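This protein record is not my work; I was only asked to verify it. Where you disagree with what is written, explain briefly why. This is what I was given:
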Amino acid sequence: MTFRLLRSRDGSTAWLRILARGLAVCLAQSSKSGSRVKLLGLVLCISYQADVLAEDETAQAIAGSNIFLKYCAGCHGFDGFAVYEQAPSFSMGERLHKSDEELLGSVLAGKHAMPYWKDKLSDDMFRSAIAYLRVMLDRSSSGLPPREEPIPEMHYKFNPVGEDEDYWQNRD
C-alpha cells in the first residue's frame, strides 16, 4: 500500500526526488535550528524512500523483461517497436501515458486484435512486464537501445484475434 501511495499516476517516483530537492532548498534558507532539524529529517526520509522505490522498480523491471520478451515481444517487438500495425510501440511511448492499472486492465481484457490475458499469468507478472515497458521507453528516450537483455530461445507469438493458430516460435 505504501508504494502505491507514493507513486505518481504513471507509476514513477521521480516526483519524490523533486520534493526532496525543494525541501533541501527550504532547509538551506531556514534560520531557526529546530525547523532546520525537522526539514533535514524530512529530506533524508523522502530521499531514502525514493531510493528504496527505485530499487524495487529496477528489480520488478528485470523480472518483467523475461515476461515481456517471452509472451509479449512476438507482437510488440523485442525492442518495443510493434510487429503488427495495430499493436502499440512501447519504445515510442505509445499507450504509456496511461497508469499501470489502466494498462493492466487492457492486458487482462484484451483490446482490438490483442487477445485477453485474464487468468493466463498472474497480475504481478503483468505489473512487472509493464514496469519493463517504462524502462524500455526511458532507454529509448535517452538514445540507448531499448533492450539490453538477450532474446529468449523460445517466445510466444500470437496471430491477431480472428486469425488461425497461435504458436511457439524458435528464435531466428
About this structure: Confidence is low (pLDDT under 50) at residues 1-10, 167-172. Helices lie at 2-5, 14-29, 33-76, 100-109, 123-141. The longest helix spans residues 33-76.
